Fold this sequence. Notes:
The chain has 152 residues and is α+β, with helices and mostly antiparallel strands. The protein is 32% helix and 26% strand. The protein has helices at residues 2-10, 59-81, 106-121; strands at 27-30, 33-36, 42-43, 46-47, 87-98, 128-134, 143-151.
Amino acid sequence: MFEEKIKEITGQELPTAPKPLAAYIPAQMTGNLVFTSGQLPMKEGKLIAEGKVAGVVSEEVAIQCAQQCAVNCISAVKSVIGDLEKIEQIVKVVVFVNSSAGFSGQPKIANGASEFLVQVFGEQGKHARSAVGVSELPLNAPVEIEMIVRVK
Length: 152
């Protein structure tokens, strides 16, 4: 059901978890919680966009990037639990936005992920969140997201 909703919203099958860029794993389970590593807006092996938000990257594109990061976080979770139907709650989402000087619209960008998660998971998708502006991200990505998910 959740994978069907993701396909309906994004027009794509849930991808396999993106390969790590360094010495880490995409997600780690401890008890009934899964912690994802930071996920970039990778689609079909490349970034959707590169650069600072409100500089090179428009807010609209950054919102799309946040949604793709959330898709990739869910893929990372699936790589650990096998079946998305085991997800009980999206607990916390941390959104890092590669921000131009003076840009303070990080919450709007983070909504690209938050609204998507509620569309897919309903009440289970409502989560605590931080939206943080940063000066740089790996590969010059506009957005990076990490997530904590509670599973059955």
